[in-house]
Amino acid sequence: MKSFYEIEDRPPLGTSFVLALQHMLAAFGAIIAVPLVVGGVLGLPESTMVSIVSAALLVSGIITIVQCLGLGPVGIRMPCVMGTSFTFVAVAIAIGQEHGLSGILGSALGGSLVMIIGSQFMVQVRKLFPPIVSGTVILMIGISLVPVGTDWFAGALPGSAEYGALPHLMIGLLVAVVVITLNRRGSGLFKTGAIVIGMATGYLLSVLMGDVDFAPISEAAFVRIPSLLPVELTFPITGVISMGIVYLVTIMESTGDFLALSEVSHCKLTGKRLSRGILCDGVGSALAAVFGTTPFSSFSQNVGIVAITGVASRFVVAMTGGLLMIAGLFPKLAALIVTVPQPVLGGASIIMFGMIIAAGIKMLSRVDLNERNSVIVAVSITAGLAVTTRPDILSNLPSFFQVSLSSGITTGALVAVLLNQLFIQDAPEPEEMDEPEQIEPVKNQPSFNTELVS
């Protein structure tokens, strides 16, 4: 069995299913969390909440398939999982408290034009991301995800009495040990499927310890088909503008995700390919509004799976899209995945997120870290960590800046781009960013899954 599947490779069907399941398990919780948080704060009826979650899963699956396989000018054609974005939570709640769900969906639909139109300028934007900037952004993505993985590993919200309880840490550690051991010592499917095997081991232990609640499975319906336009859309001007601002932020975050994905999958990211990916983000968010759920973006955590497993096949992740669609149509399957305890997710996540950090370090290691470049990396990472660890630092700024700079990834990326342009006269000759459209995976590069543990 191959140790690294490239973008255009097609693993055997059984192998592809296991590999696709890994991506689904990593993304599932985040996909359903956003509509649950927004709906919970707004006090939406249970039937509406179920509808929003089902629509989120169905549209996630559709847009993941389009992003991986492409549909005309739409889709980056790389192994990218799509899902609801936490970046939109605060603005969605603010709009919903005044205009209800119809205002959220209408604003999301109108604001998506910002991303759709902005995608046409990504050839120019790509030139702002030479390796010194790209490596810094990728590193910031991994660092910003570490608190999320840590909270999952601890099994509860920070401050809770159950946070970091010994049983939670034991389960998370078991999953991490199984994943690392299989990645380093396993072969064939045991190596590439290390994450799903590790999570299955942790889930079984959780069942034996009585930590799994099966009630959601018995309570879920067998079939549910999301409907188009479940509520009448309204388009409040302030809501559309607010959503448009967040879409601008999402363009920056998705660009960082695509850069990280190109690094771990050994595939060159041109401006034209980036444009297709951002366009898919915008079209996906518009489709989500039509189906009655919150806006979409690319998922960072799945980049770590590609790095660990060495499976960069876009056809595998397209199968993940199919699984998400099935989960959206058959709620009992979705409920089964919901029962996976947080420490099980955390044990795998801390490795996945760490691999994204390693990808950023690897890219920066190919850059001459002279005085100029060291300043760019240092200041950008510090700025990104500042708003991540101390978000209150933005509390006295105008709302535009609070929204725009609330993400450490966006802040770090903006600072890196600005500093790189400010000191452009001190930079070496820039690399040629755009190449002919027939982009082939880079051959003969070492697989990340052979470098997990030195």
TrEMBL record:
GO terms for molecular function: xanthine transmembrane transporter activity. Residues 444-454 have a biased composition (Polar residues). It holds the Pfam family Xan_ur_permease. It is found in: Cell membrane. It is a multi-pass membrane protein. PROSITE patterns: XANTH_URACIL_PERMASE. Residues 429-438 have a biased composition (Acidic residues). The chain crosses the membrane at residues 12-37, 49-69, 76-95, 101-121, 128-145, 165-182, 189-209, 229-249, 315-338, 344-361. InterPro entries: NCS2, UacT-like, Xan_ur_permease. Residues 429-454 are annotated as: Disordered. GO terms for cellular component: plasma membrane. Keywords: Cell membrane, Membrane, Transmembrane, Transmembrane helix, Transport. PANTHER family: PURINE PERMEASE C1399.01C-RELATED. Belongs to the nucleobase:cation symporter-2 (NCS2) (TC 2.A.40) family. NCBIfam families: ncs2 (TIGR00801), NCS2_1 (NF037981), pbuX (TIGR03173). This is Xanthine permease. It comes from Endozoicomonas elysicola.
